[in-house]
Sequence to fold (126 residues):
Amino acid sequence: MKIGERVKEIRIKQGLTQTELSEKSRITVRTIQRIENHEVNPSIHSLKMLCDALEVPLSEFQDVKTQKPYQFEFKSTITDMNQLITDLKTLINNHWKILLIIGLIIAFLTNYTDIKSGILDGWNNR
Fold:
């Protein structure tokens, strides 16, 4: 069973329309339609948003017939640049604080010797 079929099956079982799922997951109705019609594979971020909205674990979308026990893998390809940009915007909006901290840590670590020498020079000039 494909991911889109499973999303549709769970959505219908819960009595949700595509619009209601869109509101709960913050994914556009058109994207949900495209996922359910197998026009695109959902990104991991979109799939996580759908899992949260449908209140199911990510393992619900594992294809039991093709996967070995304890092996779980998603293969996703970028087929739509607009969806990629939308997913990136959502990721940044939801996790901007963490991304800022990571950026500051990277900036600090890449400039560690300059920062260290600046601190030591300032300390020695006292």
Observations:
- The chain has two domains: 1-79, 80-126.
- Residues 13 and 86 are 28 Å apart (CA to CA).
- The domain at 1-79 is CATH 1.10.260.40 (434 Repressor (Amino-terminal Domain)).
